[in-house]
Structure formats: structure tokens, C-alpha cells
């Protein structure tokens, strides 16, 4: 009765199930990421947010995209917003099958930590927990972000302890639940005035429970044909040398001038940086208004009149992914030549020093945080009650974007976009469309 013809599909199903659970998890040790087998993990990643709410719920679409990601040589994606109550099994399994790991942001438009009047409370924490609860199920969840570009101006340092307090609580919750030690990190805007203070503050505590597990930077400094020193990367490297936790580019890929060459990849994986940096994430997968896409699902349509379930903001967000030419192939060619081996975990462990990073000192009119002050408690708001931060005057809403432009670390006019990274703009636009948060957008305008 039980013929071979019937048995084969069952066997294959069984094999596939094994293959899925076989994706190795990623852990952070010292300043590097490692696979379970002790090989160092370098990120060749893509920012993936087809729809503002959650791109990991449409399995068929994930599979179509993953085939193209695999062609590029992608081994990680970053997703900014997810719905913790949705079913992600199909997409997460398809990603695992392709050897692709996920870095996911824990916040929403309404729960993100804000630079202005920063606070960290139970409502925010609950939401962060829900996302962690959902994604810790998957072995290919490689890391979570407690914030994206919370600090955007030179005078925004008072928000830093709130970001770190969130990381402290997420790490404690992760450990209390007995979850795998999924690295908890932060994705920073590239603000020269805050560097290296913010970066160092996040990693300098002698108490590991009050440090990030990784730090990352959204940096668009390398535009067109540039060089390690001409781009500013040598300065980033100076500030990150001997950094004690993994650091990587959580967004990169300047698009002025076009076409994008992605030559910065060979610097990030090259002799000056590869011992320090764990790779990069290219912004972004889908071609939309901001014009950063590697993939298109069709020409733009008039947002005022176009209708259809797959259209938002004038762009189709589903279908057959068509590479944007020549950018897609340029990235593919870059990555195809870059195969850093790094260091084996066993050898690295022996070389790990216990020397810690010096915490940045508080300076008047600059970095306004006393690192020896206790972190904010859950429920605390800056300026109300005892705070780890020196009280700074609250940024006026109107001036906050302006000063971010002047505080931007950019070199040359081609980098003007770095003042507010494209994803911030896009997600804010998305929030207007999706949830009608007109107030939030008006605040930023
Ligand atoms: C360790 O695992 C990774 C990911 O599966 C793989 O690429 C690498 O070749 C493995 N290293 C060794 C030494 O087997
Ligand atoms: C936490 O802050 C958010 C705003 O970020 C607010 O909507 C919410 O009511 C606050 N929750 C608590 C418990 O105070
Ligand atoms: C380290 O930090 C955690 C979280 O804030 C705290 O509970 C613990 O007491 C600290 N440990 C030491 C030795 O200070
Ligand atoms: C960090 O980089 C800046 C330039 O971007 C430089 O002025 C500063 O000295 C560097 N600091 C360290 C500690 O490397």
C-alpha cells in the first residue's frame, strides 16, 4: 500500500524540515559575530520593507524576492516594522532555506524612543517584548534593534540613556524567558558631532547587562567613485578601532551620482576595516519614491488616482522582482569578489582582551551625559524625576530637523541626504498613508 512514489514526497518533506532547522544561529562574541561552527559571520545585507506594516507575511512574495537575494549573495535582511501577531513562518523558513538571517527593529511609529522629551515606559516595552517573543522562535533571527536614528542632532544626547535602558530591559527579558542570546543593538544616524561619544557610551559599561550587544551606523558617506580616506570611512574606522562589540553599517548605499557602484563594499571588507566591521546592509530592496531600490515591481503610478491592494505611495509592492539596472548587477559583482574569512572563534577567544572602553566624558554644550549616573528606570521621562542624563534644554520641534542638517557628518553636497536618512523619510511618509498620523508628520515638517 505504501508505495515508493508516495513515500518519496514524505522523505523530501522530512529532509526539508531538517534543512530548515539546520540554519546556524548567529551569536556576538567580543567585537564579532559567529556562526555556530565558529566561522565569523560578515553581513551582506539588504533593507527589506516592501510595505510599511510587515513584509514577512506574504510567503509567495518572500520566495520570489529571496531567489533574487540569493542571486545577489545576500545573507541578511533588515526589516524595520513587523506585526508581532502575524504568522511569519513561511517567510522565515524560506529565508532560512536560503541562508538568510534577519535583523528586526522592535518599535513602531507610536512606540519608538524619541529624541525630544525621551522616555522609556511599559507600553513601549510591551511592544518590544511582543516582537521578540515572535521572532526568537526562528533560528535565523540574528539580532534586534531597540531603535533607529533616535538621536539625530548634536544636542540630542539626553536620549541616549533611554535607548540603553531599553536595551537593558530587552536583554533582561530575553534572559529571563530563557531565549537564545539574540544580540540586542541600536542603529545610529551618522552624526559627526556625536561620534565617537554615542558609540562609546553604548558599549562602555563594565556591566554587560547595561551594554548593547552590537552597534550599527546608517552612513551614506561614500558616493560614486571615492576612496577609503576621501569618503570619510577612514575617520569612521579611527573611531571604531578596538570597539568591544560588533559594529556594522545598518544602512549604506549613497545614490548620488547614479548609477550606484557600491565600491565601498570592498573597503568595508578590505584590509583597513575588515578586522573591525562586520559588514553592511544596503538600503534598500524596493524601488520607490526615494529612488534607492535594487528591485522594482513596476513603474510608478499616480498616487492620487492609482488604486489596488498592492499599491501604496504610487508604487506596486508585490509581484515579480525586476532588477534595477545596472545597480543590482553592480552590487552583485562587488559582493561576488568579497569573501572575508575573518578569524575562527577558537583563536579569537584566546586573543580576547578584557580591556574595556573608556566612557565618554560629559562636556558642556556637547555630549551631555554622565556615564556614571544610573540608567533611567522603566517609566521614566527625561527631565521628570531622577535621570542618568544631565538636564538639557528640550529641542524645539521646529529646529530639530534643521539642526540635524547642520550636525550631519556629511562630506560634500552629494551627501546632503544623510541629514535625515531615506528610511526615516520613507517611514514617516508611510505613517501618514497608513495610520493617518498627520500630527507626527506635521511635527517633522
Ligand atoms: C560554518 O557555517 C557557515 C554557514 O553555514 C558556512 O558558510 C561555513 O563554511 C562553515 N564553516 C566551516 C569551517 O565549516
Ligand atoms: C508610554 O509612552 C507613550 C508615548 O510614547 C504613551 O502613548 C503611553 O501612554 C505611555 N505609557 C504609559 C504606561 O505611560
Ligand atoms: C548590572 O546591571 C543590571 C541591570 O541594570 C543590574 O541588575 C545588576 O545589579 C548590575 N550588576 C552589577 C554588578 O552592578
Ligand atoms: C573620531 O573621529 C574624529 C573625526 O571624525 C576625530 O576628530 C576624533 O579624534 C576621533 N576620535 C577617536 C577617539 O578616534
Keywords:
445 residues, alpha/beta, TIM Barrel, eight-stranded parallel beta barrel, two-stranded antiparallel ribbon, 16 strands, globular, disordered N terminus, disordered C terminus, binds 2-acetamido-2-deoxy-beta-D-glucopyranose
What does this structure look like?
Belongs to the glycosyl hydrolase 72 family. One of its GO terms (molecular function) is 1,3-beta-glucanosyltransferase activity. Residues 1-22 form the signal peptide. Residues 374-388 have a biased composition (Polar residues). Its main location: membrane. With 445 residues, the chain is of the alpha/beta class. The protein has one domain (2-444): Alpha-Beta Barrel (TIM Barrel), CATH 3.20.20.80. It has helices at 4-21, 59-72, 89-97, 122-135, 160-176, 197-201, 233-240, 264-268, 327-337, 345-351, 397-407, 422-435, 438-444; strands spanning 26-29, 32-35, 43-47, 76-79, 101-105, 119-120, 141-148, 184-189, 214-218, 247-252, 277-282, 295-296, 311-312, 315-316, 322-323, 380-381. The strands form five sheets. It has an eight-stranded parallel β-barrel. The chain has a two-stranded antiparallel sheet with strand order 1-2. Helix 2 (59-72) packs parallel to helix 3 and helix 4 packs across helix 5. The protein is globular, with a radius of gyration of 21 Å. The relative contact order is 0.15. One 2-acetamido-2-deoxy-beta-D-glucopyranose binds next to helix 4.
Number of helices: 13
Unreliable sequence segments: 1-20, 386-420, 424-445
Biggest sheet statistics: 8 strands, parallel, barrel
Bound molecules: 2-acetamido-2-deoxy-beta-D-glucopyranose
